[in-house]
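FAQ: What does a multi-protein file look like?

Like this. Sequence, then tokens, then the next protein.
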Amino acid sequence: MNSTSYIELSREAYENNLKFLRSYIKKETRISSVVKGNAYGHGIKDFIPMAESLGIDHFSVHSADEAKEVLEARNNPNTEIMIMGFIANEDILWAIANDISFFVFEFDRVRTAIEMARSVNKKARVHIELETGMNRTGFDEEEISRLIPILNENHDWLEIQGICTHYAGAESIANYIRVEDQKNKFNQMTQLLVDNNIRPKMRHTCCSAASIRLPDMHEDMVRIGILQYGFWPSREIFIEHLKGRADKTEPLKRLITWKSTIMSVKHVEMGEFVGYGTTYLAQRDMKIAIVPIGYSHGFSRSLSNTGRVLINGMRIPVIGMVNMNNMAVDVSELEEVAKGDEVTLIGKSGDVEISVASFGELSDQLNYELLTRLPAKIPRIIN
């Protein structure tokens, strides 16, 4: 059955972005591809094999259910999976059995991991998350002192894969002092662990923004999310990259293009309202097209009467209210337009483009929010 829309992912664009990242990040530093939020809307089951084919062998997810999706999508049995956030205690045994590592940031999870590992005579692969100033998850300095003896007494059941933290706002220079303080705390707390004979296989602190802004903290691995998909974490990070460079061109390429088709074309007489309510009154005789995309597909209702789509190389306005399953667009200026014509919601048509950024600005959404709201049911195609 045909879907109302589909998403294209560009392998060439992803290869370009990885080349850029590898030129930026220290040679010995590993890249963990962050694929939480259904690979930032790009689709885990389609994105994982493509990433593996281009040399990625480590993926970070938020939760155990996402880890299961990656496990099912991977082709390389040596590809590693790391859970950074939620895993229910009853799922820890599953993670251990499948060699999936996970963050530990509170004592109950540590104790459960030890108990489950002992029950199956197999080590739990854990990353010790340190609370350095994000105030979200992680062991603080006082808790680390209490954690150390537990780790030393249970080294037969815990494999310390990593020590890590997360920076609170590395994408903004306004957070400079806070982030510098986090760096110092991380180094101090890590040294405390090492001094007490706890030596992880790797240290990792950097997200996309920190990887650009804090090259001194690349450590053994960086966790790259939004950058790999061709988007900057913020305008400030893009400027940080350009600063002092002769070449001011955009080095990243967007992987994603979102397309639909025209469902029907009809004429509306001057003085008629279009769609629900009275938000759009035809000021002239018009030709409109109905596109089978609405807010249930990720096209925000806030784009009513303000959004744009691309048809036949022209920028076309959305008119009336965006419905759950469809919307109307004004195609009066198109000489030739018919049912089945391609509609570009994000991407290029001819020489014009609707970027995720411009789409997001119109709907008052962050790139991250807009991308992750694209439903998983929309087919993804690699090209």
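And here is the next protein:
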Amino acid sequence: MTQFKAIVAREVDRRSKGTLEELTLADLPNRDVLVQIDYSSLNYKDALAVSGRGRICREMPMVCGIDLAGTIVESDNPDWQAGDRVVVNGFGMSETVWGGYSQYQRVASEWLVRLPEAFSFQQAMAIGTAGYTSMLCVHALQDHGLEPGDGQVCVTGASGGVGSVALLLLAKLGYHAVAVSGRPSMEGYLRELGAINVIDRAELDRDPRPLDKELYSAGIDCVGSKTLATLLSQTRYEGIVAACGLAGGADLPATVMPFILRGVSLRGIDSVMAEQKRRQRAWDDLARLVDPAHLADVFEVRPMSQIPALATELLDGKLRGRIVVAVNA
């Protein structure tokens, strides 16, 4: 019987703790497509699940990992064949269903997206949920009517996975992005990604005013809490902020002033259960906009065995960009 490695979270002292274990195909859930996984990625939610510093795993044992890219080995769905290259993001992986930190996984065929030919498996996971979420955020700004010449776009949490790819996408499309980071050492990196300016996190992470000086036509926020509230207060008339994260907290200490006096829109971005049409649009545009050669600037590859240590580093703010997980290394 085929044996393989996976990061499995089990309950320890009433918290989840992910460690490297050996599984067999018989251990996997009963779903209609078996995928041999090449790469996954490390995201904020993954770090919380593996470390136990957040209540992510609703069921245990749980194979962690909200992303995967690999090749179909078996399929009960005629629309998908052995040998098809696929990517899966979200759909409750690492929360209620087993995920991508495994050399094999069974998934539901309706979760699958065909991997664009432009990307290798490694490059797809350099993009991963973070890049796919970034594309959803950019689409929200575009669908609102934002044009490249309309003014500056503020990207909070810019040195993280979502922020890094958002800067690449905005620069490629001709937008002027301002990066917000709490690490001064990241300025050169963020400017290389396309930021026209880099400001310190403390400028937004403060007690917000009901209305502040209008600085930005739009924003992509990965932080939440005071940072998002301040960004809203600094968004121009009829501007928009796409909110996709809560690294700084789940609260929002804001007022209604930006909404009723400036017509600002707050657009929530959920990448986990997004409909298939939006997913396909996102991946198609990523294939069109992202130069695979440029992805080398935003990721590094680490073996799956290092995930428990990397999870702590990510939560402690010691990592930059994207971590691609080699599940077979």
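Q: Is there any per-entry metadata?
A: Some entries carry free-text notes. For the entry above: The two ends are 21 Å apart (CA to CA).
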